[in-house]
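Reply to dn_fold:

You asked what the input looked like. This is it:
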Amino acid sequence: MHPETSFIIGLSLDNSYFNSENIARLIAYVNTTLPDNQHFIMIPDVPAVHTMVAKGMNRNDAEKKSRLKSNALENKCKNVALQKIPDIVRWESLKNNTIYQSRLNEFEEFYNANNSFREYINTTVYSVLKKQNDTIISSEALYTGSRFLLMELAFICWSPDILNVSHASYVYHNPFDILDYLLSGQSDITVHKNVSFIKFQ
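and this is what came back:
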């Protein structure tokens, strides 16, 4: 691990893992591992709307639910932090970030042009949607859900440039196979060389 690494704690809106105890553990981990560095918490408020819509919710309700759940998560982070609170990243702050928007466009174009990458994304999204929905997953729902994953991957894979840090490591409690795949250099899409992934125990 590079000594200048900034950790990015990834949160999910509809995941029971992110209770107060586990959020406190995550924050304590990043603050004690590299206490002098700037760290971040990523709350995927806007990307989550795409998943909710893919599950059948109308967009207005999805936006409202995402906003409320994201606000609750942010407040939980602020309430449980025993030390300094990492900077919280919400998608509103990325709306005018030209680096992020440019990289997101690259990921979306690559998704449309590259069959193997599109299949990898769609398979990942399908598994998420299928866990919470026993009905047939339509191609439209799959495409809508893929927006969530592309938005997250573009941010993570180019987080050093987007957040203006030298090195970044994404911290999440579950395996993230497609991120590992991209960071390994096996894909034809370019990612930042100073990004890593840590599966939190």
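The chain has eight helices and five strands.
Hope that clears it up.
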